[in-house]
Design a protein that fits this description.
Length: about 250
């Protein structure tokens, strides 16, 4: 299958290894990955900050870049949610609607258009899974506690297929990490406190690795863990799957 890889701005600048792992993983699964997607940002940061004109400009550039492709994959649930739910109203004409229709978060793509490949790999560690709020409740890629649903979804299934991997049970499996884009800037003390709560949940259950499909959540928790001397390895889901299936 031929797909375009879209790399969100903060992944490009702060965690390029997640984009590199996504590329390697997709090619390993038989995808012909096109790297010609040429837009730096979907416009979500501007939209969250209320800068509508700037958000519309970035969204228009993003939608124009998506126009030639039938499938666009991103290693970010947050950006995928913004493209799918906000570009149709930010971009004039049908370019925003097209972008919303063809854009998938990585695990969503593997479980959907790619037909959930049978991964063969091993990752012998105790792993805590964090599904970001946009992926959890915006894209509905996981069960939600308020609906009395158990942990589930494509990321849960992909991790569960790896030999040796133990998914640790959490007291609050679908709670926000506290990042929330501009929330972390406007309310830093509360944001950090929420992050520390999540880390306590992971370490209480003896997790060795924290994995997320959203680099923004991962970066937020990684910094707090580092400054709190919490011994927890952080990995994007693409990094973990790529390493496990080598």
């Amino acid at each position: 299958m031929r797909v375009a890889l879209a790399v969100p701005c903060y992944v490009d600048q702060l965690r390029p290894s997640a984009a590199q792992a996504t590329l390697v993983l997709l090619e390993r699964l038989g995808c012909d990955v096109n790297l010609a997607f040429d837009a730096p940002c979907c416009g979500q940061p501007m939209s969250n900050a209320g800068a509508v004109a700037a958000a519309r400009g970035a969204a228009t550039t993003w939608a124009t870049s998506a126009r030639p492709f039938d499938v666009v994959v991103m290693p970010s649930g947050s950006c995928t949610h913004h493209v799918r739910h906000h570009l149709p109203s930010l971009v004039s004409g049908d370019a925003g609607t097209h972008a919303a229709r063809v854009t998938y978060e990585l695990c969503e793509f593997l479980a959907g258009p790619l037909g959930m490949p049978q991964l063969t790999g091993r990752f012998a560690h105790r792993v805590a899974m964090h599904l970001g709020c946009h992926a959890q409740r915006g894209l509905r890629l996981g069960g939600s506690s308020e609906l009395h649903q158990p942990p589930s979804g494509p990321m849960h299934t992909l991790l569960g297929a790896l030999d040796g991997l133990t998914l640790v049970p959490l007291d609050r499996p679908d709670e926000c990490c506290g990042f929330g884009g501009s929330f972390a800037i406007g309310e830093p003390e509360l944001s950090v406190a929420m992050g520390r709560d999540r880390l306590t949940d992971y370490t209480t259950h003896q997790a060795e690795v924290l994995v997320s499909s959203d680099p923004s959540c991962l970066l937020h928790l990684e910094v707090i863990a580092s400054r709190s001397a919490v011994p927890l390895r952080t990995m994007h889901i693409a990094e973990l799957l790529e390493e496990a299936t080598r």
